[in-house]
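Researcher: Go.
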Amino acid sequence: MTPPAGHLTLDCQFRYAEGFELDLRFEACEGITALVGPSGAGKTTALGLIAGILRPQRGRIRLGDRVLVDTESRIFLPPERRGIGMVFQDARLFPHLSVHDNLIFSRRAVASRMALPRVVEILEIGHLVDQMPERLSGGERQRVALGRALLSDPRLLVMDEPVSALDEPLKHRVLDYLARAVAEWKVPALFVSHDSADVRRLADRVVLMAAGRTIATGSADILLDGALLAKLAHGPPLINLLRVERLRNTGSYWEGFVGTQMVVLPAAGVLEGETTYVEFQPHDVILSAETVAGLSVRNQLRGVVTRLVSLPGRVLVELDVGQPLWADVTPGAASELGIEPGGTLYCLVKSTAMKVVG
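Model: Structure:
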């Protein structure tokens, strides 16, 4: 059976002169795949191999029915023949060209199945087409860069930390545009990110890397796997991300529900829709054996302990509050509370510790 046009398979070895070695195997198919791991894991190197910027010492890369690299057969397609659209952290627009001319720069743009008017509409950049790049904000530049990549009619979008330089509101808007574009044109996307909350919101599949190796692949839930966290002492950072539904404005604050449990959200202006996400750190969670009265903490979520991960000087506790939630406690606190899988605890989280992320 012929694989889909955007189905990527990679099995490569690469070594820098400085000594870093990468020995990587993974697949990426429809939807959005994230490469995640600590700094120095080899994520950007992997993108360079896929895009044709780097040449592996050994290996094979295939995209759909096309072989991009096969060292045994001495096949190495140049970047311009690979059908890959690239979006970099710094956008890399041509400063001497208008937004319109940046968008149509690719020779494939005229024949692209992505019509220019529709790309402009989906990315909401119609008011920018006559502007020069120097007049654009960071988020606008990234949207134009995404549009230019789409108009090259790619089989695969490859993005290296495309929103890491943006502030939170802009970052989430650009990620929404990315999700909208992938859904509109069914273009598979591969992106690198250090932000596990962004990955859990956006990615259909995750490739977890460390020291140039594939540690695990699967859904975004692998970022909550305690056994993997124990292997990755220096990352990726563990961040709680809760989906809050049935939002309601009480006049002075917003509230919503995680499953059947009500939560009070931080002041966040106007929230659109009936669902949002909040993120917070595991160390912002206080565990209690019972509900506590007379505290300023508004959120006390009942949870069942599902696992414990012992790390040097700390214990990560996973609880099911209707969604996975992690707490970070000392070994002494874990012992005093008698925390064991199956036990019930209350997770106290100040609303001010939560950050609404869209």
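Model: The longest helix spans residues 168-185.
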